[in-house]
Amino acid sequence: MRSLTIGFIRARGGFSGATGQRTEQRTVQVGPRVTPEPFTLTLDATGFGCSVVVARGANVLARNRLATRHGQAERLLPMIDDAIRRAGLFPSAIDLIGVVVGPGSFTGIRVSLSAARGIALATQAQLIGVTGFEAVAADLVPSGVTNGSFLLIAIESRREDLFIQIFDHTGGPLLKARAVRPALLDATLSEAIGEAPLLVAGDAAERALSALLPRHNTTAIEASAPDAAGLLRAVLTRWRVDERGGKPLPLYLRAPDVTLPTVAKA
Q: Are 137 and 171 in contact (CB under 8 A)?
């Protein structure tokens, strides 16, 4: 067992990206933390919003969710601070941190990973990265909503294409995650599962469903975007079987939209 002195920027007592605030140092005991019910922080800012959950095991102590297309970088840390406070915890009490690594917006992925890595470094909590597809599947499959159907999870790319992955009724992935144009979605599914019954989930579920019409036995699940609640279930599943997956890395699925500067000819 060893001691670690952690410096936190205080803005009303917790995490903040603000400058010019008082810095508080706290000494905590650092060592292997083995508990059957870990205090867990999960966070996601990869899509159209930010979501944060603080839980003890599967019991949610505090939850924040904000729908927004922009500004995740400014909103995420205050939401984390608020959730930890309402859970009645200090940041040093967090044992486990889960973060959605993508796909989604490039800025949102970077914001999520940076926040998770920074808090994990400061608190010595274990860090587990999960894709948005896994988070949605972990939220839906245990509830029995799939009822034997295959599950297509479609996530917005904010461009023409869709980010997709197909799962079986047990939550096992059938295809590697990929970016697909809507016009090619039906052919991709037919090759993988034929005309089998299909549920479509994710924040791009309606757009994917429209691209699949008039495919039979296909239904969209409303309000099924990736969020920190589904992420909590996926993270705890991995933690319980000791499947950490190494250092969380971003999942982009496509190259960024970058215009290279033109070099003037002499």
A: yes
User: What sign does the dihedral 72-129-154-226 (CA atoms) show?
Assistant: negative
Tens of pLDDT, residues 193-238: 999 999 999 999 999 999 999 999 999 999 999 999 999 999 999 9
Tell me: pLDDT of 22 over 90: no
Collapsed DSSP state (helix, strand, coil) of residue 202: coil
- Cα(151)–Cα(10) distance, rounded to whole angstroms? 44
- For the residues 45-66, what does the mean pLDDT come to? 96
Domain ranges of the chain: 34-133+226-240, 146-220
- Euclidean distance between CA atoms 235 and 138, whole angstroms: 9
Name the token pair of 234: 């996926």
- Residues 6 or more apart whose CB falls under 8 angstroms from that of 222 comprise 205
CATH fold for domain 146-220: Nucleotidyltransferase; domain 5 (3.30.420)
Other beta carbons within 10 Å of 254: 13
Q: What is the pLDDT of residues 115-125, one digit of tens each?
A: 999 999 999 99
- Class for the domain spanning 34-133+226-240: alpha beta
DSSP string, 61-121: EEEEEEE-SS-HHHHHHHHHHHHHHHTT--GGG--EEEEE--SS-HHHHHHHHHHHHHHHH
Chain center to CA of 152: 17
Asked whether the domain spanning 146-220 has the same topology as the one spanning 34-133+226-240, the reply is yes
Q: What is the pTM of this model?
A: 0.83
